[in-house]
Amino acid sequence: MTTLNINIIIVGLSGLIVAPQPWLATLPLSFQFISSMLSTLPASLLMGRFGRKPIFVLGVIIIACGMAGQGLALLTGNFAGFLLASMLVGSAHGIAQYYRYAAADSVAEDQKPVVVSLVLAGGVIAAFAGANIVNNTIGLLPGVIYASCFFAGAVLQIIALPVILSLRTPPVTKQVTGGRPLSVFFRNPRFLSGLIAAALGYSVMTFLMTAAPLQIVSVSGLSDSENALVIQWHVIAMFMPSFFTGWLIRRFGSEGIILASLMIYGIAVMVLINGLSFWHYFSVLLLVGLGWNGLYVTGSAIIAASAEPEERAKVQGISDFIITMMIAISSLSAGSLHYLIGWKSMGVGALIPVAVILIFTLAMMLTGKNNPKTT
User: What secondary structure letter does DSSP report for 77?
Assistant: First the structure.
């Protein structure tokens, strides 16, 4: 999570340095999400065969190499190399998404929302760590800003490797049968609404977050430290609620949390279109982070509760593939749309997926099919 936060803060700005055209600045971050999308399904299937820990270790090694590659590419002004290194980082992020499922698989069904929340709560530490790493290493290498931040992220992954090696994960479940076909899950209104909430909720957040550093620094002329502060508190808002989101889901139900999160997204858009000051950016990204948490945690909990042990690899794999596909599309479009239509128009456009989530959630509530394990 810390390395993701570092990338969110500086990849777009680094892209402005090495990209041949300004509108390509966010392409490296988009490539991260694309490679994350492409790695999710293979990672899930490999975990289903070999267990989670070996794949988690592989992910740490890949991200360390990727961040070191980003730093080298920035030092040499190699945009193609920066894209390739960013894809390595993204593929490792695709693997890291399964930490929440690894935790959920270890507990009873009624505890899944709680443990998913607590795993994501680690993002609070990442928010402070990522912003502080950027602020304290940004100028360590003279002549090329940001490169030292990537090298610091690579070192952090090497430090984290012994922790990953010490993880205790559930043994691999022997798949005697393939379980139910995927079509069963996509006919289940509850599973479908959870997937839509997680996928589109994440894509709205990514859409605005990807363009935010360009808007804050390049358009509004604010400083790198102000940009880092906005992103830091955005990430805190994304993950701090995770300490209690699980309990809120148990108290008010999945539908209640999804609807409340959509309301927060709507307020964020209202703030976005009404000003371009530091505090407008700060408030928008803070609200978007809060809304993302409710949608992503609730959607992930619904997905985690939908599959039997022998079905988890394929169900979680296809779910995360769809989620990261939507993230990749939103990230890929963010840079060019920011260049073409501007920040405020992007905010208005973000209301479209919000409306889609609302429609699916209301449809689920009207069907009354609240059993996550439809046969």
Answer: T
Q: Give dist(CA 69, CA 75) in Å, integer.
A: 10
Tokens of 1: 């999570």
| Structure tokens belonging to residue 95 | 């693997």
Amino acid at 131: A
Mean pLDDT in residue range 72-90: 94
Write the single-letter amino acid at 193. Answer: S
Contacts of residue 80, Cβ cutoff 8 Å, sequence gap at least 6: none
Query: How many C-beta neighbours within 10 Å does residue 13 have?
Result: 19
> Which two structure tokens, joined as six digits, stand for 35?
């490679």
Q: 3-class DSSP state for residue 141?
A: coil
CA R_g for the chain: 20
Q: Kindly report whether the global pTM for this prediction surpasses the value 0.85.
A: no
- On the 0-12 / 13-18 / 19+ scale of CB atoms within 10 A, 310 is middle
Task: List the structure tokens of 142.
Answer: 């003279």
Of 244, 224, 223, 227, the residue nearest 235 (C-alpha): 227
Segment (H or E) for 92: helix 79-96
> What per-residue string of b and e applies to 180-189 under the rule 16 or more CB within 10 Å gives b?
beeebbeebb
| Cα distance between residue 131 and residue 232, in whole Å | 6
DSSP-derived letter for residue 68 is H
Q: How far is CA 74 from CA 10, 25, 35, 287, in A?
A: 12, 13, 20, 32
Residue of 48, 37, 22, 35 lying closest to 219 (CA atoms): 22
- State how far the alpha carbon of 199 is from the alpha carbons of 213, 327, 328, in Å: 23, 7, 11
pLDDT of 175 above 60: no
* Residue 230 structure tokens: 């906005």
- In the prediction, which pLDDT does 373 show? 44
* Sequence letter at residue 194: G
- Domain 2-168+179-367 is in which class? mainly alpha
Please give the structure tokens belonging to residue 51.
């267990």
- Residues 315, 180 contacting (CB under 8 angstroms): no
* Cα separation, 35 vs 27, whole angstroms: 12
Q: What is d(CA 100, CA 102) in angstroms, rounded to the nearest whole number?
A: 5
